[in-house]
Design a protein that fits this description.
The strands form two sheets. This protein has a five-stranded parallel sheet. Strands 3-7 form a two-stranded antiparallel sheet. It has two domains: about 100 residues, Rhodanese-like domain (Oxidized Rhodanese, domain 1), CATH 3.40.250.10; about 60 residues, no CATH class. It is elongated and about 65 Å long. The chain is built from eleven helices and seven strands. It is an alpha/beta fold.
Length: about 200
């Protein structure tokens, strides 16, 4: 019995070690494919293609001039159209979305695939130019965050100063956010999309 237990323990340790090695290899491979803004700029000069995976509202407000807009949803379902580029560099706002979707993005193109370190924010911190259209509304996600946060705060303030019943407003908004996270449906986002400033935004 002791021998069987020892064998099982050794097998578990070997499996954990193999998993750790696989994780490290993936991490090392990923680090090799992440480009600094300066390195990305050099690669673009050599014929690489820069692809912005953010939503249309984010791209309309601010983007890198050389970037082509292909939202993540499109890339996930259709991949990239054929092109003669020798490399593709994907980016989002901060780099988190591209890293999280690295596996999908790596299969989207037939050439070398890279990720822009720090995304659009990293590009700007490096002092590189971007195209900004201040007439475009804030991206919808930020509008939802501002709207939901404001209503929760209002519910707390009114619940404290006017009547406790106002706390229900904060609870209602919080429940709505949880539901949005679980189902992917956000009622507040749907309402905001119908607002005049969003209807007039660039496609």
């Amino acid at each position: 019995m002791a021998g069987v237990a020892a064998d099982r323990a050794n097998a578990a340790m070997l499996q954990a070690s193999n998993h750790r090695c696989t994780y490290l290899n993936e991490s090392e491979s990923m680090s090799k494919k992440i480009l600094t803004p300066q390195a990305a700029q050099e690669l673009l000069a050599q014929g690489a293609v820069l692809v912005d995976i953010r939503g249309a509202d984010e791209y309309a407000r601010e983007h890198i001039a050389a970037a082509r807009h292909m939202p993540m949803e499109q890339l996930s379902s259709q991949g990239m159209p054929h092109n003669d580029a020798n490399a593709v560099i994907f980016h989002c706002r901060s780099g988190n979305r591209t890293v999280m979707n690295a596996g999908v993005l790596d299969n989207c193109a037939s050439c070398e695939v890279y990720i822009l370190e720090g995304g659009l924010d990293g590009w700007k911190k490096a002092g590189l130019p971007v195209v900004t259209d201040a007439s475009q509304p804030l991206e919808l996600q930020r509008q939802v965050q501002i709207g939901a946060g404001s209503m929760i705060l209002l519910g707390v303030i009114l619940g404290t100063t006017v009547a406790p019943g106002w706390y229900a407003l904060s609870g209602f908004v919080g429940a709505g956010l949880i539901m949005a996270g679980v189902t992917g449906f956000c009622g507040l986002a749907r309402v905001l999309m119908k607002m005049p400033w969003n209807k007039n935004s660039a496609a």
